[in-house]
C-alpha cells in the first residue's frame, strides 16, 4: 500500500487566525494538531485535512500551490468572493488580465486562491475545493501519481493532473514556464504511511521514486521532510 495524503500544510504566523478563515470559508471544524499547529477536519472520505503550522518567515513570492474553488452559478461565485472578503481575504494581482472569468484572492496571510466561474468542465464533480493547482513539471505529476497511487486524469502538453480513485479534489501541475522558488514552500503536502506499512519501507519507496531528503527541522517533531523531483518540500509523518 502507498502513503496517503493526510493534509495540505500551510506555514502561518498566526495559525489559529488562518485556520478560522479557512474554517469559515470551507465549513470545516477546527481541532488541535498533536504535532504542533491547528487542523481542519475533512467532512468526508475524499477530502484531506488542512494543517496550519507556526512559522514566522515572511512570504516573499507567489505560492507554488493554490486552491481552485468552484461555483455553481455566477451568483454563487459572487457570494463565495463576498464571504471570503468578509472573513479577511483580499483581491490579489498576480498578473492576470481583465479577460479571465475567475477571481483571484489571497487569504489573511497572503496565500493565493481562485474562485472559478461556473461551467468549468475540468472541475465538474470535484466538490467546492475543485483543485489544488500546482506549479510543476510533467515528471512531478508522474511522481505524485505513483507516490499516492492516484491515477492520472490529465496528461497533455506537459500539464498533468491526478485524482483519488474515489474522486474529490484534483491535484494539477501546469508545466513550464515555472515560477521562481523563493526558498521554503509555505504550502506543502503532509503524507502518512498507509495502514500497517513500515515507516522506513515507505521512506525507501519514496526515495526510489525520485524524492530526496531535506536537512531541516522546521516541520517539528513527528515528520521527516523530503522533496519531490521538482524540489517542492513535503513531509512524511512518523507517527499520528
Report on this structure:
The strands form two sheets. The protein has an eight-stranded mixed sheet. It has helices at residues 15-26, 74-87, 138-148, 199-209, and strands at 4-12, 30-32, 38-40, 49-54, 65-69, 90-91, 103-106, 112-115, 129-134, 152-156, 159-163, 170-173, 187-192, 212-213, 223-227, 233-237. The model has no long low-confidence stretch (mean pLDDT 92). It starts with a strand and ends with a strand. The protein has four helices and 16 strands. The longest helix has 14 residues, at 74-87. It has a single domain, classed as 2,3-Dihydroxybiphenyl 1,2-Dioxygenase, domain 1 (Roll). With 240 residues, the chain is of the alpha+beta class.
Summarize the structure.
The chain has 240 residues and is an alpha+beta fold.
Summarize the SSE layout with pairings:
Layout: E1 4-12, H1 15-26, E2 30-32, E3 38-40, E4 49-54, E5 65-69, H2 74-87, E6 90-91, E7 103-106, E8 112-115, E9 129-134, H3 138-148, E10 152-156, E11 159-163, E12 170-173, E13 187-192, H4 199-209, E14 212-213, E15 223-227, E16 233-237
Parallel strand pairs: 1-4, 5-8, 9-12, 13-16
Antiparallel strand pairs: 1-13, 2-3, 3-4, 5-9, 6-7, 7-8, 10-11, 11-12, 14-15, 15-16
Amino acid at each position: 500500500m502507498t502513503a496517503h495524503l493526510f493534509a495540505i500544510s500551510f506555514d502561518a504566523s498566526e495559525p489559529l487566525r488562518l485556520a478560522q478563515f479557512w474554517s469559515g470559508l470551507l465549513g470545516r471544524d477546527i481541532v488541535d494538531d498533536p504535532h504542533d499547529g491547528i487542523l481542519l477536519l475533512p467532512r468526508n472520505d475524499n477530502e484531506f485535512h488542512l494543517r496550519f503550522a507556526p512559522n514566522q518567515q515572511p512570504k516573499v513570492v507567489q505560492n507554488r500551490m493554490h486552491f481552485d474553488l468552484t461555483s455553481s452559478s455566477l451568483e454563487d461565485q459572487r457570494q463565495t468572493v463576498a464571504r471570503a472578503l468578509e472573513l479577511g481575504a483580499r483581491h490579489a494581482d498576480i498578473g492576470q488580465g481583465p479577460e479571465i472569468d475567475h477571481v483571484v484572492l489571497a487569504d489573511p496571510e497572503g496565500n493565493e486562491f481562485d474562485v472559478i466561474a461556473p461551467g468549468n468542465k475540468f472541475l465538474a464533480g470535484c466538490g467546492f475545493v475543485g483543485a489544488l493547482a500546482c506549479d510543476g513539471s510533467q515528471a512531478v505529476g508522474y511522481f505524485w501519481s505513483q507516490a499516492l497511487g492516484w491515477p492520472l486524469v490529465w496528461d497533455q502538453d506537459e500539464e498533468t493532473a491526478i485524482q483519488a480513485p474515489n474522486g474529490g479534489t484534483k491535484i494539477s501541475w501546469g508545466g513550464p514556464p515555472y515560477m521562481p522558488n523563493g526558498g521554503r514552500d509555505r504550502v506543502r503536502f503532509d503524507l502518512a504511511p498507509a495502514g500497517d506499512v513500515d515507516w522506513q519501507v515507505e521512506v525507501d519507496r519514496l526515495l526510489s521514486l525520485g524524492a530526496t531528503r531535506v536537512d531541516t527541522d522546521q516541520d517539528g517533531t513527528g515528520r521527516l521532510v523530503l522533496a519531490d523531483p521538482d524540489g517542492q518540500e513535503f513531509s512524511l509523518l512518523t507517527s499520528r
